[in-house]
Every structure is written in C-alpha cells, then in structure tokens.
Specification:
- The chain has helices at residues 7-20, 32-70, 76-86, 92-101, 103-114.
- It has 115 residues and is mostly helical.
- The chain has a single domain (10-114), classed as Orthogonal Bundle (c-terminal domain of poly(a) binding protein), CATH 1.10.1900.
- The relative contact order is 0.08.
Length: 115
C-alpha cells in the first residue's frame, strides 16, 4: 500500500508560519525551522506583554494624576480618597487625561473635592 501524505496541510502549516515571520531579518523570514522558533518566541512575548501593557499604563496614569494633584497641594492617595468620598467615579485613564490636557477642569475637580 502506498504511503499517504497530506501535502496540502503540511504546506499550509509551513506557509502560515512563514507568513507570520514576514518582516523578520535574515533566515528568520524564509527558512521554516528558524522562522518557526522566531514566531513561537514572538507569540510568547506578545501574550506576556498584553498583560504588561495594562500594568505600564496604570503606572503612567497614576504618575500623571499625582503630578496634577501635587500642583494643587494634594498627594495622589489623598486625592483619590477624597474623590471616592465625594462619590465621583472617574477612572484613572480619564483623570490622567484631564490632568495633562485640561488642567483647568482638573483644578476645578480638585477644588470641588477638597471642600
């Protein structure tokens, strides 16, 4: 009985990996075995960094809010505590954007909260 090989599926699998490696440097873009390792590693990094990105942005927002609050004589923790006491539910992303791009409204918010 002749050996049956699913060439279509094998070629599709290799093609998929090489397509993912498009733009890589050297053999990583056109040699399947090298490209496969590079693509696997890239996928691991992208999985990990989707989570890291969330952490990094939260840190950035906190720094921006802290800088804006300190201009008006409050620390970040005091400002956030006063916000929750006042019942204002703005997330850190919006607060950081206000502190950077709209300092007047951020100042009004600080005044409203610190009364």
């Amino acid at each position: 009985m002749p050996r049956s090989v699913n060439t279509v599926a094998s070629k599709a699998k290799r093609k998929k990996v090489l397509k993912s490696a498009k733009g890589y440097f050297g053999r990583r873009k056109n040699v399947y075995t090298v490209a496969k390792n590079a693509v696997e590693r890239a996928l691991q990094y992208s999985y990990r960094d989707r989570r890291t990105k969330k952490r990094e942005f939260r840190k950035l927002w906190i720094q921006r809010i802290n800088a804006g609050a300190r201009l008006h004589g409050l620390s970040y923790s005091k400002f956030m505590g006063l916000l929750s006491e006042a019942g204002i539910e703005l997330n850190r992303k919006v607060l950081a954007d206000m502190a950077m791009n709209d300092p007047k409204s951020f100042e009004e918010l600080v005044k409203k909260v610190s009364k």
